[in-house]
Amino acid sequence: MKTYLTLIAFLLFTINSFAQNDHEFVKLSEEKKGKRLTLYATNTDSISYDIFMKIETKDYRRSSNRPIIRNIAANSKIKLMTLIQLAETEGNYNSVFVVNEVAYTLDINKDHEGLDFKLDRAIKDKKVVLFTKDDCVICPDTKRILENNKIAYTEYKIDKDSTNYLKIIKEFKADKKNRFENRIPVLKVGDKVYNNIKSTEDFVGALREAFN
After folding, report:
1. Strands (DSSP E) along the chain, which ranges?
2. Which bin fits 49, alpha (ψ -120 to 50), beta or left (φ > 0)?
3. Which of 32-41, 122-131, 137-146 holds the top average pLDDT?
4. Is 100 within 8 Å of 14 (Cβ atoms)?
5. Is the distance from CB of 45 to CB of 149 less than 8 angstroms?
6. What is the pTM of this model?
C-alpha cells in the first residue's frame, strides 16, 4: 500500500517536471550487449533528483513489470533495469521517464528501494546554515530537501533566537553589492548568503549555485 501511495504522490508532484530525456542534468541512456539491453540514469548536476521510469514492451523479458522510483545522486550513473530481447522480435519498447525537481516530494523506504547516495565532496565540506521561523510556509520543504539530499545543516529558528540572524544580516549588508530582502528562509552555504527565497524552486536554484 505504501508503495502505491508513494507512486501517486510522486506523480502529483511532476506537473512541473520534464518530459523524457528533456531534463538539463538527468538523462536516460541504454547500453546493448547481444540480447541484453541495460537502461541507466545519469545525473551530471551537483544535487540529487528523484526519477520515475516505466517500460512497456512485448519484445523484451524483464525482471519486474513495476515502475521504478529511484533517487539519482549527484554526479552519478545508476543502473535502472536490464531487458532481455525475445527471439524473433524487433527489440522495440516504450518508456516513460520523468525527472522530479530534486528529492523533496517523496517519502520512500530507502532500504527497500536500495538507494545509493554518493554526494559530491563539495556538499560534504561546505558549512550549510538555514534560518527558519514557525510561520514560514516553505521552511519544512527546504529542510526536507536538505535532509533527503543528505546535506548536513545547522538550523536557527529566529522566533526563539534572533542573535545569529541579526549577525548574518549585518555581515550581508556590509557588502554594498548585496541587496537585503527581509524574507525567511535564509540560506548560507560557506560564505554565500541567499535571502531572496520565495519558493522551493528558488531554494533549489540557490543550492545549485552554491555547490556548482
Report:
1. 26-33, 36-43, 49-56, 60-62, 68-72, 76-85, 94-100, 128-132, 154-157, 186-189, 192-194
2. beta
3. 32-41
4. yes
5. no
6. 0.51
Section 207-211 average pLDDT: 80
Q: Are the C-beta atoms of residues 138 and 197 closer than 8 Å to each other?
A: yes
Other Cβ atoms less than 10 A from the Cβ of 119: the count is: 18
| Dist. CA 30–CA 84, nearest whole Å | 13
Residue with cell 546535506: 151
Q: In this structure, what DSSP letter does residue 63 have?
A: S
Q: What are the cell numbers at 180?
A: 537585503
Beta strand pairing status for 76-85 and 36-43?
Answer: antiparallel
pLDDT tens digits for 3-48? 444 444 444 444 333 345 578 889 999 999 999 999 999 998 877 8
